[in-house]
Design goal:
alpha/beta, 2-enoyl-CoA Hydratase, Chain A, domain 1, Rossmann fold, N-(1-d-carboxylethyl)-l-norvaline Dehydrogenase, domain 2, eight-stranded mixed sheet, seven-stranded mixed sheet, 28 helices
């Protein structure tokens, strides 16, 4: 027996068992210590090879293997690329030593194996897995701006072919043990249970006995890659259009998918060892780049901070909702009802009439029917889901709800009335929430008999697709209410961020800067098409004018007028912006209220399949041919304006953490994922460089780009360190 820090090695009855078990972590990762340990164990295998009949790879953790050590990756700089390449080649050599020894190697997959963990699993010539619904396999590196560089690209492409491997490499699609079995990536499944580990080992020993010599299929002479090589006519035809299609999807902002595709194609045109070197070189280049650092920071560390509840008050017991009421069966209320019922929560959906409540429930019926049609839900499951939604016009049906969420029109008086009508129906210890997107929670809480149990729970539209939920803590909201709201959001499978009360909170406030900056550009005389293209080119899902049409110009005007009225009531100054004046003109002079009103900045042809197009009169009304502009300024204005407003939110304590700023900006308002989020956009560039460019934009385009000394100090204080 040989035990190094992260690996146990035993040799008994001709079977060498390599068990991964890092004592200092809950999961196994490819840390530098593990890489060194793997070298020692591989050397021991070579020393013992005459006595070895077979090798078993196993894990002593609840999962098989978690992948790379991403904290170490965040410390890399561009100067580390060469060293990283050498390290990658070093431990991949250990993999190749085990694979090419001529001895059968079996991977026993007791749980999840993602990224580098799945690449460790692929070392085995034969793979046996416990068929648990909680287990996931796959190579999601592309979602972090990386590629599977420990053999994943090379091996999966040879296993499945260029076309077959594409969803799992270029898109990072995950798969279950049963799906792995169908793909031929897992060879046997074992039922979960207390004897599962023993059963896996018994089957491994049986396979080793039946296959005294083993190698990967592609190393057998005459092996044909599924679908053919890049030179085959069918594959060559696909490769002619694939790069253009990929560029259309990524807009050239995400290097990882294009790099993976190149490795897949080039790797099939050379021997496997050369292919593995190409893969190592590509990963080393990506891993030291700013894009990977940004995406790893946010989609791994920041998301995990939210999943682990870093912003949840810690002293409050966990809350599991069973019955929740929703006031208002319109688009938002109906979506919230679906989100709850699909997660097993009894939902009371109330509106002013039974017909309107039933209409809201029909939204869930429509969504469920779509899933039934695609085989993702049975008819029985659909009926069970719909049975959980009680559509009603009676306040009494809300009795004993643990939470009631109002999702009525953005009007203070209406919200106050429905709060007072229904609050008494709450179960003992229950709490109340408003789904407002802009109205300050502390003001709405005045209608409540228990403002400490009143909170903002801001969903995004469409609720069934949008993952983020913004929790707004009012001036009197208690820690217990915040914690229970946090638990509720996680119970319905969404991502909670916690912010403090302020006008527009975080997401609506920042999102409005994107829209209004675009409208301001139009008012300056810049062509509408250039503005929209700038939005797309910098990575926003759609241009600012298209977004304004979807959210409606009338709603924006209503919010601006409400803000003006509130400022007047509070004795605060209010400056009417050129963007506001243009929106007033669009709505009141030209009767262009937005998409739902028949048209706004765009025309919406009624013919089926016809695409929207910019309203032709924008050119004559607003465009000024002599106004100078360039695409770099336009893109920077759209991104910097949002990033600066996010930094101001952090400085004003509306936001209290960088991780919520990044995750909220991406999942709530569509800030480009390539940047890692609004705050990471600043940190990735460097605070000094960002401030210098902001100063240039301020001089040219106004105070919206001002970065005060206080904000810059806040940025320095919150800068992430690894």
């Amino acid at each position: 027996m040989k035990t190094v820090k992260t690996i146990q090695y035993t040799l008994a009855d001709g079977i060498a068992t390599i068990t991964f078990d890092n004592p200092d972590a809950s999961v196994n990762t490819m840390s530098l210590q593990w890489q060194n340990d793997m070298g020692e164990v591989t050397a021991q295998v070579l020393q013992d090879q005459n006595a070895i009949k077979g090798i078993v790879l196993a894990s002593a953790k609840a999962t098989f293997f978690a992948g790379a050590d991403l904290k170490a990756a965040m410390q890399l700089t561009p100067a580390d690329g060469g060293t990283l390449y050498t390290e990658l080649e070093r431990f991949k050599k250990h993999f190749r030593t085990l694979e090419t020894l001529g001895k059968p190697v079996v991977s026993l997959l007791n749980g999840t194996a993602l990224g580098g963990g799945w690449e460790v699993a692929l070392v085995g010539h034969y793979r046996i897995a416990i068929d648990s619904p909680k287990t996931q396999f796959g190579l999601p590196e592309v979602t972090l701006g990386l590629l599977p560089g420990a053999g994943g690209v090379t091996k999966l492409t040879r296993h499945l072919g260029l076309v077959g491997a594409q969803p799992y490499l270029v898109e990072g699609k995950l798969f279950s043990p049963s799906e792995a079995r169908q793909l031929g990536l897992v060879h046997e499944l074992v039922a979960p249970g207390e004897n599962a580990h023993a059963e896996m080992r018994a089957r491994a020993l049986a396979w080793i006995a039946a296959n005294p010599q083993a190698q990967h299929p592609w190393e057998v002479k005459g092996y044909k890659v599924p679908g053919g090589l890049p030179s085959s006519p069918a594959v060559a035809g696909m490769l002619m259009v694939a790069p253009a299609m990929l560029k259309k999807q990524t807009r050239g902002l995400y290097p990882a998918p294009e790099t993976i595709m190149a490795c897949m194609v080039e790797g099939l045109q050379v021997d496997i060892d050369t292919a593995l070197r190409l893969e190592s070189r590509a990963l080393a280049k990506l891993m030291v780049g700013t894009n990977a650092h940004a995406m790893v920071n946010t989609f791994f560390f920041n998301l995990n901070a939210i999943k682990s509840g870093q912003s949840r008050p810690a002293a409050v017991p966990r809350f599991k909702p069973t019955k929740v009421g929703v006031l208002g069966a319109g688009m938002m209320g109906a979506g919230i009802a679906w989100a709850q019922a699909s997660k097993g929560i009894t939902t009371v959906l109330k509106d002013v009439s039974q017909d309107r409540a039933e209409q809201g429930k029909s939204y869930s019926a429509k969504l469920a029917q779509g899933r039934v049609a695609k085989g993702r839900m049975t008819a029985q499951e659909q009926q069970q889901l719909l049975d959980r939604i009680v559509a009603t016009d009676a306040v009494a049906d809300l009795k004993d709800c643990e939470l009631i969420i109002e999702a009525v029109f953005e009007n203070r008086e209406l919200k106050a009335r429905v709060t007072q009508e229904s609050e008494s129906m709450l179960a003992a210890g229950g709490f109340f929430a408003s789904n407002t997107s802009t109205l300050p929670i502390s003001g709405l809480a005045r209608a409540s008999v228990a403002p400490e149990k009143f909170i903002g729970i801001h969903f995004f539209s469409p609720v069934d697709k949008m993952k983020l939920v913004e929790l707004i803590r009012g001036a009197q909201t208690s820690d217990e209410t915040v914690a229970r709201a946090y638990d509720y959001v996680q119970a319905i499978g969404k991502i909670p961020i916690v912010v403090n009360d302020a006008r527009g909170f975080f997401t609506s406030r920042v999102f409005s800067t994107f829209i209004l900056e675009g409208v301001s550009m139009l008012g300056e005389g810049i062509p509408a098409a250039a503005i929209e293209n700038a939005g797309l080119q910098c990575g926003m899902p759609v241009g600012p004018l298209a977004v304004q049409d979807e959210t409606t110009l009338t709603l924006t005007l209503h919010i601006l007028e409400q803000t003006r009225a509130d400022c007047a009531a509070e004795g605060k100054p209010y400056v009417v912006t050129p963007a506001e004046e243009l929106i007033v003109q669009m709505v009141r002079t030209h009767q262009r209220p937005g998409r739902v009103g028949g048209g706004g900045f765009y025309e919406y042809p009624g013919e089926k399949g016809a695409k929207k197009f910019l309203w032709p009169q924008l050119k004559s009304l607003f465009e000024k041919p002599d106004v100078p502009w360039n695409i770099t300024d336009l893109k920077d204005r759209l991104l910097y304006r949002q990033a600066i407003e996010t930094a101001r939110c952090l400085d004003e304590n509306v936001l209290t953490s960088v991780h919520e700023a990044n995750v909220g900006s991406i999942f709530g308002i569509g800030f480009p994922a390539w940047s890692g989020g609004a705050m990471q956009f600043i940190y990735g560039m460097g605070i000094a460089a960002f401030a210098a460019r902001a100063a240039e934009l301020e001089q040219k385009f106004g105070a919206g780009f001002a970065l005060s000394a206080s904000v810059q100090e806040t940025l320095r204080r919150h800068q992430p360190r690894y």
